[in-house]
Protein 1
Amino acid sequence: MDIRFADEKDLDQIANVYIKNHRSTYKGLLSDEYLCGLTFDYGRNKWEAYLRDESKKIWAAYEETLFLGFAAGMEDAELDRTWYLDSLHVTEDARGKGVGTALIRTVGQYAREHHYNRMSICIVKGNEAAGGLYRRLGARHFKDFEDLFAGTVSHSEKLLWEPVVL
């Protein structure tokens, strides 16, 4: 598996997996109105803007030419010296094959190399698959909070890896 910083060539695949995963993962957790409003153009514009922001990073995972998934991150706005794992999405066919773990470890390595003391991630409560993975990799509960997704309130949880050891 090859994991590298994403570029413009990756945006269509990033947008596709982002929209597809949101619609399947958050069905029943977020409103149908929000999920149905997610379009390819929305996803592409979101990740294109993210890619252009030098303070944010996106990593793409491939097996030869097959896109497997991506992770994105930036400094945590709430916690000092903390890198925030903003998004992690793996294609359906690549799930259960270590892609998510490899992406998280890559992001963690980046955080350590750039002198961040810890790494955080926020999850929608009820997303047990993601929460289980993060906890197996050493993340611990930091706080519960309410989040907004285009006006849709979600019950969410913030987890921390402290120190960043993955």
Protein 2
Amino acid sequence: MTPMKSKILNSITRWFSDLFDLFVPRLCTVCHKPLIDGEDIMCLNCLLDFPRTHLYRTQPNEIHERLISLKFPIEKASSLYWYYRDNVYAALIHDSKYRHRPKVAVALTEMHVNELIPTGFFDDIDCIEFVPMHWSKQLLRGYNQSEIIAETVSGLTGIPVSNHLKARAHKSQTRKGMADRKHNVTSRYYIESPEDLDGKHILVIDDVITTGATMYACLETIHNESQGSRFSVFSLALTHLR
């Protein structure tokens, strides 16, 4: 799917999502209580208990540890909040990813970017790549949530989205263990016009980092095809493995 078709598909999905919100009571994504004026995807009570990671305060951090087997360094890495599969806050990712509510991903991204801008996290980054989705899967879902996150980061920071990283068809990772995930990512991604990324500091974006296998595959693919590139990582959630 071309970048233009992808953007059109994302725009249509957002339009339907916004239209749906006009006719359905505004509820907190986490506790499902009615939202009041000034509240967006979460009520104030849920926002106060939101399990932020604050990983941006420590570089390197746990994200670096999950990507330790890479043969090149990750410069900066951050995730907004801890993801626990059975926790009520898992609904934030589920809604943004599977329930046609990309606005949840947009709101969380804005929250994380506003948290990171004062720290200088984005200052020397040249471009953004996001974890791609095969066109057939994106057509079924209606959008790629990682692309929407990347577009939101770009809009807030001015960093362009490169869109050189592409996906081949593959099986879902959702119910796979760590070993199976690593096996499943083999040859999943490829780069178009890799020379455009040579020597650039690239921010690679995904919605959730679990074992790190998907992010590892994306980083390794770009690194193998581009010369002298540098990398940082951004996600909305990081699965708590400890």
Protein 3
Amino acid sequence: MANEENLKKGAPYRFRTGEQQVETARKGGIASGEARRRKKTMKETAKMLLDMNIPDAAKELRAKLKVMGISEEDFTYQSAVMVGMLNQAMKGNTKAAAFLRDTIGENPLLAQDEEESTLADVIEEAYRSRMEGEDNAE
């Protein structure tokens, strides 16, 4: 609830010198940079983990990849995840199927938007230009 007591608590933060504002902004920038580095590090860590080779001790996982016809040099956690998603999709998991479709870049919703804004538009515009040219010639 707003009252005069609350306003008094904010008084030290209301009027700051230029140096104080610069120092506060600097601290905020440092904290923001650290957060960005942490997020980047998590992304890089995920990529590193997916690219790791599957150890020989994981015999069951290596056997599944071998049955799928994947060469031993490609025995990575990334290939294991994709095999797992493929198995789920073949069992009828539509989310796994959509994940695989989107991963290879064949989402029909995205492809439809691209087609409408490229080839179809170019053809239609060429047709209109030709028709207008013929009308002007008469």
